[in-house]
Amino acid sequence: MNQNYTTTFNVDQSPDEVFAAINNVRGWWSEDVEGRTDELGEFKHHYQDIHRCTIAITELIPGKKVVWHVMDNYFNFVMDKSEWKDTDIIFEISKKDGTTEVRFTHVGLVPSYECYSVCTDSWGTYINGSLRSLITEGKGHPNQSERIANKHGLEHS
After folding, report:
1. Would you say 87 and 118 are in contact if contact means Cβ atoms under 8 Å apart?
2. Residue of 151, 141, 76 lying closest to 115 (CA atoms)
3. How many helices and strands (H and E) does the chain possess?
4. pTM of the full predicted structure?
5. Cα(70)–Cα(88) distance, rounded to whole angstroms?
6. Mind listing the pLDDT tens digit for each residue in 63-112?
């Protein structure tokens, strides 16, 4: 049985629009991303002291598929610091009954992982909530950059 985490949604936008939105990682996942997210190569994601990872974009097929390989990962809330390391995150785009289907699979994110419930909840929110609204409404709900949040806080104090 396939235990990898997967989730799917359908939108009216074209496969090319979906592909562009997926590659706009700052627009739906996190503003704290270093590096290019729309070409083959590496980028780094970071969320407070809770999560850091280095991701290699290994496949980009316009309008069809995006594949990320997690090179390195750190969570501050799990015992096994290697969780996520060497896993693959796959976005598959296809036409289904006049709509565009987005299938997200995190290969290697399995129920035996300590982070499974937190990670699957988070992916569900980012993919079905934030990425979907970036595609359909032009605006996602990424993690705000700490630099922006901190700077903002100082201006109002």
Report:
1. no
2. 76
3. 5, 7
4. 0.90
5. 6
6. 999 999 999 999 999 998 889 999 999 999 999 999 999 999 999 999 99
